[in-house]
Design goal:
By secondary structure, the chain is of the alpha+beta class. The protein contains ten helices and seven strands. It is globular.
């Protein structure tokens, strides 16, 4: 069994068999309590969420059952999208989390053997205004180390700490890479099946979009990572999707951030102009 989990990659047209990761060591860490406020009420988040393109389209969340690794993302889309009655020109947007889950890109917290450096670095990362961040727990930092290697995390922490002292934020994730930034996982606020579970970013997101589009008669498709800060990343898309426009249009996070069970959505332009 390989030591490190498979990295996400958008270049290959083939998904290899996914292996799951086991550890004999079981450790639990109490999540630090932090006084927070809803991200969407913060000034910077309001500015992003109120950009003009947010109102340029209609967003229709599509409810599904609770997606697990027994599901196949193409079959999920074939099952739920047609009943939502998509129109010509609609874009199907898909939460990156459910794509990763259906690819088996998950590890339970008790399967991750944390080390000293995971505890050291996780105690020193900046806490976001809401939640714990991608590597805010030792177990999630260890997941990042397993993914990209300890030297890269060392470099990211060193440069990120220095530039944060100078007033610039975000360099840790710029250097550690998008695979680390996409790490998700929580002890609270999610479905029981995904409590104490690390979820990596999806593998081959562009190829997955193309497979779903083909199954839905050429419908434009994008896999997105959105949050209540107003930040949206397009991780994969078919060639007929304008990524910049979609990132701005989805700043209001229409699929939700909690227990909505709406990991799919249709984006419908209010005008025909692109």
């Amino acid at each position: 069994m390989p030591k490190n989990p498979q990295k996400a990659d958008s270049s290959s047209p083939d998904l290899p068999g996914h292996e799951f990761y086991r550890s004999e060591k079981k450790e639990w860490y109490a999540e630090q309590e932090r006084k927070t406020e809803r991200v969407a009420t913060r000034d910077n988040a309001r500015r992003k969420r109120n950009n003009p393109l947010v109102q340029s389209c209609e967003k229709i969340p599509v409810k599904t059952h609770l997606i697990t690794r027994q599901d196949r993302i193409v079959e999920v889309c074939k099952r739920y999208v047609p009943p939502a009655k998509p129109q010509d020109g609609d874009i199907l947007v898909i939460s990156e989390k459910i794509v990763a889950i259906t690819q088996g890109r998950t590890r339970r917290f008790d399967e991750i053997n944390e080390g000293f450096w995971a505890r050291f670095f996780s105690a020193r990362v900046s806490a976001p205004p809401w939640g714990i961040g991608a590597v805010g727990l030792p177990v999630k930092m260890q997941a990042a180390i397993d993914l990209v290697g300890l030297p890269r995390i060392f470099l990211a922490a060193a440069i990120g700490g220095f530039t944060r002292f100078l007033g610039r934020r975000g360099d840790f994730y710029r250097i550690a890479g998008p695979d680390v930034a996409q790490i998700d996982g929580s002890r609270v606020g999610t479905f029981e099946e995904y409590i104490n579970v690390v979820i990596y970013g999806p593998a081959y997101p562009k190829w997955v979009c193309e497979q779903i589009s083909e199954a839905l008669d050429g419908m434009p498709v994008a896999i997105i990572d959105a949050n209540d800060y107003g930040d949206v990343d397009i991780l994969g898309r078919t060639d007929d999707v304008n990524a910049h426009w979609l990132e701005l249009a989805l700043a209001d996070n229409p699929l939700g951030q909690g227990l909505e069970k709406t990991p799919l959505g249709l984006v419908r332009r209010r005008s025909s102009s692109r």
